[in-house]
Amino acid sequence: MTALSARHGARQHPPRHARRAWLAVAVAAACVAAPLTATTSLTATARPASAPANEPARSDAAAVACTGNAALDRPATASSTEGPFGPALAVDGDPGTRWSSEPTDPQWIRVDLGTVQDLCRVELVWETAYGKDFEIEASDDGTTWRTLKTVTNGSGGTQVLDVAGSGRYVRVTGTERGTGYGYSLWELKVSTGDGGGAPGDPLPGGGDLGPNVHVFGPDTPTDQVQAAVDAVYDQQEADQFGDGRHQFLFEPGTYPVHVNAGFHTSIAGLGAEPDDVNITGGVWADAEWFEGNATQNFWRSVENLAVTPTGGDMRWAVSQAAPMRRVHVNGNLMLHSSRYGWASGGYIADSVVDGEVRAWTQQQWYTRDSTLTGGWAGTLWNMVFSGVENAPPTSFPEPAVTTLDTTGIIREKPYLYLDGQDYAVFVPSARSGTRGATWDGGTTAGTSVPLDEFYVARPGDSAARINQALDQGLHLLLTPGIYELDGTVEVNRADTVVLGLGYVTIVPTAGQTAMRVADVDGVRVAGVLFDAGATESPSMLTVGTEGSTADHADDPISLHDVFVRVGGAHAGRVDQAIVVNADDTIVDHVWSWRGDHGAGIGWDVNTARNGLVVNGDDVDAYGLFVEHYQEYNTLWNGERGRTIFYQNELPYDPPDQAAWNHDGVRGWAAYKVADHVTQHEAWGLGSYCVFTSDASIVSDNGFEVPRTPGVRMHSLLTVSLGGVGTYEHVINGVGPSASGTETIPATVVSYP
Fold this sequence. Notes:
mainly beta, 55 strands, globular, Discoidin domain-containing protein, signal
């Protein structure tokens, strides 16, 4: 890094871990700004969606009353059964049949309602053997439970208990029997409200996109457009962990404005093709808020438009979770800040750059299925290209370039656009052997889905309401904001599209999995940030059912720009952040991040075991960024997996070596392919360490894979940042040590 800085005339910077200590000052300064109001931000003319912009606010109070029996004939299980009196007999609607347990404490019976629902009443009809003390509990996943009602000194008979909460599973747990017998129930009934056994009127599709979607037309006065984007940027430039969420949408036309992209801000065109919208001033991401250091320029995006920048250069100095998709740059593209400060990685897909791409201080970058007409300049540690016209050839490790002629099986991200005068979402088709942009010289293959086939969600919607819409067969469009949900969003229908705008953020508040995708064909989840809650969740996103072998090869499930944050905005906890159980899943750009700075940070505070776990077979991953988890950052259990580009930092904060060992091994590998796997292949993988609590900590290997001919790894590197920690080897005891203050990568070209 010293030599590179001198070569380009950049000033020296402290090691990365020291830089992050400055964040508290930057965030404190950001927090003094007054929040941007809807009146201030919507100074430009906005096009209404398929419903009027002044659509009245929705209220869950208008839902159905507390009626019905959602437990009727649903699957039931119990801690024990006495004789032939199984748990199903308590939910069959027959008052003459019953469940009976063994005569011990505690005992329980639970019922699966099928989806997370709002719960309002539980009715128990006891046989003579009743429960004196018991609890009514609910769970979204059958693992993490919360108590809805505690009963002491019960007298049996029929008990009607009002409750407030939600869940998919309802459990009655007896802790003290009223007689010497077991527990015995004639009937267990569960009444629900919105989304329950007696649903109200169907929820409508379409609707207004809300106050944080800013839509501009070609007739909007330029000064109004500029004022609107500047107002948002003033708020979002340094507000790394704030609540602001914004989406800019430009209708087809030409806009002589300069659009700066701050935190949690997305910029997109509404044309069918990128060249339908041309921003002739420029689209810009710099790092002046952090003195030219772009290593924390996260959570921003630009999509589906052309940029003809004033002066010939577009600047996109970003790091993780900042994708550029379907963009035509009529000029040069600068991936470093205006001060040449460090930057830590990024992602380009389905784009065309007419000029030269310059990445002088980027540590790593992945470019997929694009055309770089003017070529690429600048490499540091890990530059990876797949399916890119005019990409530099493979030369790893010096310079550190890895290039694949084609990508493989891929599907581009869905996007909102104008189909005539109406909003729709275009859903690109899956392709194989891809190279170049889908729209360059032709049109993107796929289908158009009208907005009125989407439930347009707003912050404040409950998980039950969202699930009701999904159960109706609607797709899901999440408008910008923070969704604090106490239930799991359940995506159970094949080919459902879940699309978030403006870095929409889902926070699970009850320790549940935030979103679960069933093992069905063709689901797309795109543009969602999951922010772990204070109560530990099993996962943020789970795809498919554990142990399933369903074949989705003809219609893969796909994830696009899916991001996880554990800590930073607040204390958060999760076990395994993203879990992919389904076969034939495409993972197209994720950043799974256990926070290393911000609020709620600490080895025992923002706990998280794994960032990505792949259990499914034939899973293809393109652009994996997984950082700071406490055990294996990525654990791959499925067969025939493929990864193109992997960026990782190990956790900064193990307190000492003793706290970060397992099975006689020092540390945990960044990327672990399980010992039983026989086929796996990956290209362009980098892992960095900076152990801020104890610089003497050693990781024996950056990468661990089975020693078998079917597992092949290409272009691997490990880096000790400033010598703060050591990698003994790169992979499986092979490759040199990475250590020392000069921050020189240790590399392995191929393994075995």
